[in-house]
Amino acid sequence: MRFPIAIGPGDEKHAYGVVVPDLPGCFSAGDTLDEALDNAREAIELWLETVIDDGGQVPEARSLAEHQANLEFSGWVWAVVEIDLADLSDKAERVNITLPARILRRIDAAAKAAKESRSGYIAHLALRA
Q: Is 87 strand, coil or helix?
């Protein structure tokens, strides 16, 4: 999914400000344009993860032309950040992994103690990392 972003001018004393008009409250900044773009991607991903985790809907992005017509952003630079929503999906996928037997026994014991399945335990560890 492509999200238009507006980048406010920066200078020696001020960072470049970034607003994502289609995602209310989603904003970021960067000392350089490159940093502003990188930080915008991170802000969008975090915003989307929060909405998805809360069971909300991901809003459809409006066209770049529609945003450029908004006088609120007159003089701002526009860019588009591409986000693969599949990377944020909670849809379960079956995977086949190979682990040494001693590590698998440790995982199973820890999962049992936590009253979780092996998959659930591994997923929770990954999310905490």
A: helix
Regarding whether 76 and 35 lie in a shared domain, the answer is yes
* Residue 129 to residue 79: CA distance in whole angstroms: 31
Q: How far is CA 73 from CA 22, 36, 64, 89, in A?
A: 13, 16, 12, 32
Evaluate whether 6 touches 19 at the Cβ level (below 8 Å).
yes
Q: How many CA atoms lie within 13 A of 2 on its CB side?
A: 7
Range of the domain at 34: 2-88
Domain count, the chain: 2
Written as tens digits, the pLDDT of the chain (129 aa) is 999 999 998 777 889 999 999 999 999 999 998 999 999 999 999 999 999 888 888 999 999 999 999 999 998 999 999 998 877 776 777 889 999 999 999 999 999 999 999 988 998 898 788
Tell whether 81 and 128 lie within a shared domain.
no
Whether 32 and 66 share a structural domain: yes
